[in-house]
Automatic annotation (TrEMBL):
It comes from Aestuariispira insulae. The chain crosses the membrane at residues 12-34, 46-70, 128-149, 155-182, 194-213. Keywords: Cell membrane, Membrane, Transmembrane, Transmembrane helix. This is Threonine/homoserine/homoserine lactone efflux protein. InterPro entries: LeuE-type. The keyword Cell membrane applies. It comes from the Bacteria. GO terms for cellular component: plasma membrane. Its main location: membrane. It is found in: Cell membrane. It is a multi-pass membrane protein.
Length: 215
């Protein structure tokens, strides 16, 4: 393992650097984690982050074995993903706008949108759906392995890259959940709930429409 790292460290730097830029940059997944952590607490934020990470590992596993590139070239599947992803983001936008309009009290906000949404499984599935319906995730993973894997790379190299990206995902997405569920951030959310939810709704709307209207 040490010898492989010494030989392929440029590939590791390229792969992990690309992954960090792709995941740490503001996007639907990070916005959802931030909003959920402030709105429903640390546990809910971590559950949603776990769903996002699971979706990321799924696409990464396909890309590691060459199936991600095949899917990216299959126009029908890609179009379905794009439409589903856009509609799902618009649904998240509607939920945020609905929450902003209702103007719930801070203690109710910590409980989530409603009682049906307090389970960890609900937040996990939401995070999973966000990432599984994001066609950009497929392209990002395809880019990572296309750029980082030389033709003579050993079969274990993509597995090591996938594992490293998984650990980075835990730190990045989990970090968002931990930071935005702190008392300071929850207090900010309680004081500016309507503004924050409106902003999140606008960002989700922009992201959803961009997916739906982009060829």
């Amino acid at each position: 393992m040490v010898e492989m790292i010494q030989i392929y460290w440029p590939q590791f730097l390229l792969a992990f650097g690309t992954y960090i830029v792709a995941t740490a940059s503001p996007g639907p997944a990070t916005l959802a984690i931030m909003g959920t952590a402030m709105r429903a607490g640390r546990s809910a934020g971590l559950s949603l982050a776990a769903g996002v990470i699971s979706g990321s590992v799924f696409w990464g596993s396909l890309a590691a074995f060459g199936l991600g590139g095949l899917l990216a070239r299959f126009e029908g599947a890609f179009e379905i993903m794009r439409l589903l992803g856009g509609c799902y983001l618009l649904w998240l936008a509607w939920k945020s706008f609905q929450s902003a309009r209702k103007g719930l009290h801070a203690d109710a906000a910590v409980a989530g949108f409603n009682k049906r949404e307090t389970g960890h499984g609900t937040f996990y599935r939401r995070g999973l759906a966000i990432h599984l319906t994001n066609p950009k995730a497929v392209l990002s993973w395809a880019a990572i392995f296309t750029l980082a894997l030389p033709a003579e790379a050993p079969a274990i190299l993509p597995v090591v890259i996938l594992l490293g990206c998984f650990l980075l995902g835990l730190v990045i997405f989990g970090g968002y959940a931990l930071v935005f569920s702190t008392p300071v951030m929850v207090g900010v959310y309680a004081r500016a709930k309507s503004w924050i939810e409106t902003a999140l709704g606008g960002l989700f709307t922009a992201a959803g429409l961009r997916l739906l209207i982009t060829d």
